[in-house]
Amino acid sequence: AGVYASVAGLSDYRFDGFSESNHQPTWQATAYCYRSDGFFVGTTFTGIDFEDTPRTHFEADWYVGRQFQWHGAKVTATLLYASFPDKRAPGPSYDIVEPQLEISRDFKRLRLGMLGSWETDTSGAGQEWHVRASAAYATTRWLTLSGHAGRFFAARGADYDYDAWDLGA
Question: Cα–Cα distance between 64 and 99 in angstroms, integer?
Answer without folding.
Answer: 10
